[in-house]
Design brief:
Length: about 140
């Protein structure tokens, strides 16, 4: 399976801007720019998109792993905080923190925590990132 997206950038790094498009059409010439990435400008940015991809991947993987453990989640919410740091050689994504809350009827916290932690490095997006990945998981009542 392959998924495709493309970016078009016009102009210099600071004054220019670009658009992102995915084959699915979910993103269609979605604006991104220096100010949207490093300031409070309009548009998305690569780190935000990585966060969304990681949150979505983790939530789906957790649902599957919970199902294999005999638990049927009603709702899983995953927030991903992506940390971008300026280093000597440029910028680097150094960390992603996943904050997860889940409503799972009949689940005990010990099993939920174990499955949540086991899932942390199991989703494909976690595996592709060269960053520290941390997790805080809460089981809702």
């Amino acid at each position: 399976m392959e998924r495709k997206a493309f970016a078009v950038w016009n102009g210099s790094i600071r004054e220019g801007s670009g658009v992102l498009t995915t084959d699915s059409g979910v993103l269609s010439e979605t604006q991104y720019s220096f100010s949207g990435r490093f300031e409070d400008g309009i548009g998305t940015n690569p780190e935000e998109l990585i966060g969304a991809a990681h949150a979505g991947c983790y939530a789906m993987a957790l649902s599957g792993n919970l199902g294999r453990a005999g638990l049927n989640p009603e709702k899983i919410r995953t927030d991903a905080t992506v940390t971008l740091v300026k280093k000597e050689a440029g910028f680097a994504i150094t960390a992603v923190h996943l904050d997860v809350s889940a409503k799972i009827p009949g689940a005990d916290n010990e099993t939920f925590q174990r499955v949540a932690e086991d899932t942390k490095m199991g989703c494909p997006v976690s595996q592709v990132l060269n960053a520290e990945i941390t997790l805080e998981a809460k089981l809702e009542a």
